[in-house]
Design goal:
Elements lengths: L10 E2 L22 E3 L2 E10 L2 E8 L6 E3 L4 E5 L4 E3 L16 E5 L8 E6 L3 H6 L3 E10 L4 E5 L8 E5 L6 E6 L3 E3 L1 E4 L3 E12 L5 E12 L5 H6 L16 E5 L6 H37 L10
Length: about 300
């Protein structure tokens, strides 16, 4: 069976998988050049690069761990990841018929498949964020669907984190110093572009946010060159601007609460000005009418 996970508000991504103890050194290098990661331990996580908050891939597939840019990295999901969807209503959220084979990057490591999770363990990140970060799925472009979920043991209900079939943004909360792996289920082989945002409140009071796009080549027949060449302008959820290769924000984003408040205040001021003009105009008109209708006083001033 597949060890195969909708949260309207930020869900809490629990850590049910044992054996995830790790630490990340502050001086781990940022590798350059293209890389295809097909097996071994890989995380996504926030990090500072040139004092800018961003989202990177932590590559632990070699003896010396490094960080990589998502633009220069393809995550290959080979045919070794194929598993059949269980005939169990608990997995109906996958939107795939029971018995159909799907590609599963599992929560518990399969040595023949890349093992993908996330962490909030970069030393500077742990020193600067206030309690944790929020991960959002902004959009997926691919030939099929992507579903990400957690499951504790064989009998616990799946905890769905992300479904590409859902139109709305899907955030979940990750505590500081967390290292978690989940099930990533791709319904169809091909190239997938998965845009993720990581945001946080810092202990300084500043807000930071960055969006990056992960590249997946799912299936042995899928070309990694095609995955590298794919355009990463994955559209965000309804009502949200398209996401490019990367967007990094500090403070309020464009169109955020401060901008909306300023716009509302300007509109209210304009309405008050119009109302004042109307009141003054009506007052002057009424005064002139009253003067015309007032009886003339006698010449000697007697009434």
């Amino acid at each position: 069976m597949v060890a195969l996970a909708a949260a309207p508000a930020p869900a809490l991504a629990e850590e049910p998988t044992p054996g995830l103890d790790q630490s990340i050194a502050a001086d781990q290098p940022l590798a350059s050049g293209r890389a295809t990661l097909a097996t071994g331990h890989v995380d996504i996580g926030p990090r500072y690069v040139d004092n800018q908050w961003t989202l990177l891939i932590h590559d632990g597939t070699q003896a010396q761990s490094v960080w990589r840019s998502p633009d220069e990295t393809v995550l290959r999901v080979s045919d070794a990841a194929l598993q059949a969807v269980p005939d169990d209503p608990a997995y109906a959220f996958l939107g795939v018929d029971a018995g159909k084979r799907v590609y599963v990057v599992p929560q518990v490591q399969n040595q023949e498949v890349v093992w993908l999770g996330w962490n909030t363990q970069d030393p500077r990140v742990m020193q600067t964020i206030d309690r944790g970060v929020t991960l959002h799925l902004l959009g997926v472009r691919g030939p099929g669907t992507l579903t990400t979920f957690l499951q504790s043991g064989n009998f616990a209900a799946p905890q769905v984190l992300w479904r590409s079939a859902e139109p709305a943004a899907q955030p979940f909360w990750v505590e500081v110093n967390t290292h978690t792996h989940a099930n990533w289920v791709f319904s169809t082989p091909g190239v997938y572009l998965v845009t993720i945002q990581v945001s946080a409140d810092l202990i300084s009071g500043e807000k930071v946010s960055a969006s990056r796009t992960l590249r997946f080549a799912v299936g042995d027949a899928t070309s990694t060159d095609e995955a590298f060449a794919a355009t990463a302008d994955v559209p965000g959820p309804a009502g949200q601007a398209p996401v490019g290769h990367e967007r990094t924000d500090s403070g309020e984003p464009s169109g955020g609460p401060s901008t909306l408040l300023l716009t509302a205040l300007i509109g209210i001021a304009a309405l008050l000005a119009v109302a004042l003009v109307v009141v003054l105009t009506r007052g002057a008109t009424a005064k002139r009418r009253a003067e015309r209708e007032r009886p003339a006083s006698p010449p000697d001033g007697r009434s």
